[in-house]
Design a protein that fits this description.
Layout lengths: L4 E4 L3 E6 L4 E7 L5 E7 L9 H38 L7 H7 L1 E7 L5 E6 L8 E6 L5 E7 L1
Parallel strand pairs: 4-5
Antiparallel strand pairs: 1-2, 2-3, 3-4, 5-6, 6-7, 7-8
Helix pairs in contact: 1-2
Length: about 150
């Protein structure tokens, strides 16, 4: 059984959610917004302690925080044509306008070093969200519409 809470200097107080096998907290991502952060314990080896996983997750989080604008740019580049050709109502938008509509809502950090960022984009895709997936070097691996 996992500890109910783990406190980290950057990720704050993370609460165990056994239903989903992760720790979660809400933290201040930037001066403008808070996000939900989840630290997944899927595929964690039995000998690895929760503290080790959370410490590694903190490192992933710091990298994502530095690259978040690049991640929005990547997602906008991947989905802009889809939006303008299939979803728009009226005039199309450019990459800058697309990026400005993206709001980071949550972040899933995995023990293998990968991450998944969830963005809301208002009504651009009928209320669907955008997931940006990274590899263990925090390079973009895929973008998808969900919801």
């Amino acid at each position: 059984m996992q500890a109910q809470y783990i406190t980290d200097t950057l990720l704050g107080t993370l609460k165990w959610n056994g239903e989903y096998n992760w720790y979660q907290s809400n933290i201040q991502f930037s001066t403008e917004r808070q996000i939900e952060v989840m630290v997944s314990f899927d595929d964690v080896e039995p000998h690895v302690t929760p503290i080790n996983v959370v410490t590694h997750a903190r490192q992933i989080y710091e990298g994502v925080q530095q690259k978040e604008n690049e991640m929005r740019r990547f997602a906008a580049g991947a989905l802009l044509k889809t939006y303008n050709e299939n979803w728009r109502q009226g005039k199309g938008i450019d990459k800058k306008a697309f990026m400005e509509r993206m709001t980071l809502e949550s972040m899933m950090l995995y023990a293998d070093g990968t991450a998944r960022l969830c963005y809301s984009v208002g009504d651009l895709f009928g209320g669907h969200s955008i997931f940006v997936h990274t590899d263990d070097e925090l390079y973009f691996s895929s973008v998808e519409l969900v919801g």
